[in-house]
């Protein structure tokens, strides 16, 4: 941990997919800031929860569930708010970048891809607003990706959702700004989670991507944490409707 954001101590944080990959690093990062963290995930994260308590002295609250089940997602958020206080930081992190070609996409796959990568984000935002408004404000951070900025092939349903997240982020920032609710997006580059290493990180692909980066180091989940903490804290109190790219310098925005 390279920075302490004192206003995050005691803050109620909810993270989707907070038990693995980037999400697990985010959970740990907020715990080490003293935040009260609740998260939802499909797989059992009991061992991770125990380890976080042992390592940080701060136990997260885990609800097992599927974010595409919107009633279950909202119930998990309500449960966490009941235990930790009204959610003032929402991190929509869970996503699935399963590879696919256009010719192979069925209506069922398309609907699933949008449900996990976009629809759940919208309804999590919807569920968080009332509590943030009552509490005098909050921060929503939506995870997108540089994949759509690069025009990457191999997962068109995923990149469509990525682009949609940016549009949603800007609209919600405008809609909720009067209530001091900030809405921003983070667009990571190729972060080498265990899933990426196991499934898609072939040596040739890694070398080609690193060649595109200005900074010649592969990204790890920990590289995304500090930017998220910054957008969650009052240090970014006048930043909203923005997409922060964290990719080692692959794409250029502005």
Automatic annotation (TrEMBL):
CDD domains assigned to the protein according to its UniProt record, in alphabetical order: SDR_c
Keywords from the UniProt entry: Oxidoreductase
Record field: transmembrane: none
Ketoreductase domain segment(s): 11-203
Gene3D superfamilies reported for this sequence: NAD(P)-binding Rossmann-like Domain
Family in the record: Belongs to the short-chain dehydrogenases/reductases (SDR) family.
PANTHER family membership: OXIDOREDUCTASE, SHORT-CHAIN DEHYDROGENASE/REDUCTASE FAMILY (AFU_ORTHOLOGUE AFUA_5G02870), SHORT-CHAIN DEHYDROGENASE_REDUCTASE FAMILY PROTEIN
Name of protein: SDR family NAD(P)-dependent oxidoreductase
Organism whose genome encodes this protein: Aliiroseovarius salicola
């Amino acid at each position: 941990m390279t920075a302490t954001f004192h206003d995050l101590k005691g803050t109620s944080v909810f993270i989707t997919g907070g038990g693995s990959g980037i999400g697990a690093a985010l959970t740990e990062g907020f715990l080490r800031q003293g935040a009260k963290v609740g998260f939802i995930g499909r797989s059992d994260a009991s061992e991770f929860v125990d380890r976080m308590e042992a390592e940080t002295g701060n136990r997260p609250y885990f609800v097992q569930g599927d974010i595409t089940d919107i009633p279950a997602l909202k119930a998990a958020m309500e449960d966490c708010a009941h235990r930790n206080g009204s959610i003032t930081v929402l991190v929509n992190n869970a996503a699935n970048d399963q590879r696919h070609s256009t010719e192979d996409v069925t209506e069922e796959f398309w609907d699933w891809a949008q449900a996990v990568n976009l629809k759940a984000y919208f309804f999590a935002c919807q569920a968080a607003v009332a509590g943030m408004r009552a509490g005098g404000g909050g921060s929503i951070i939506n995870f997108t990706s540089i994949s759509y900025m690069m025009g990457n092939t191999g997962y068109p349903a995923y990149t469509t959702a990525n682009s949609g997240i940016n549009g949603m982020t800007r609209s919600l920032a405008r809609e909720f700004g009067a209530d001091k609710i900030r809405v921003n997006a983070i667009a990571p580059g190729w972060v080498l989670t265990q899933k990426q290493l196991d499934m898609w990180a072939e040596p040739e692909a890694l070398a080609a991507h690193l060649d595109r980066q200005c900074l010649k180091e592969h990204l790890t989940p920990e590289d995304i944490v500090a930017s998220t903490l910054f957008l969650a804290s009052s240090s970014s109190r006048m930043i909203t409707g923005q997409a922060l790219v964290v990719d080692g310098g692959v794409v250029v925005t502005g």
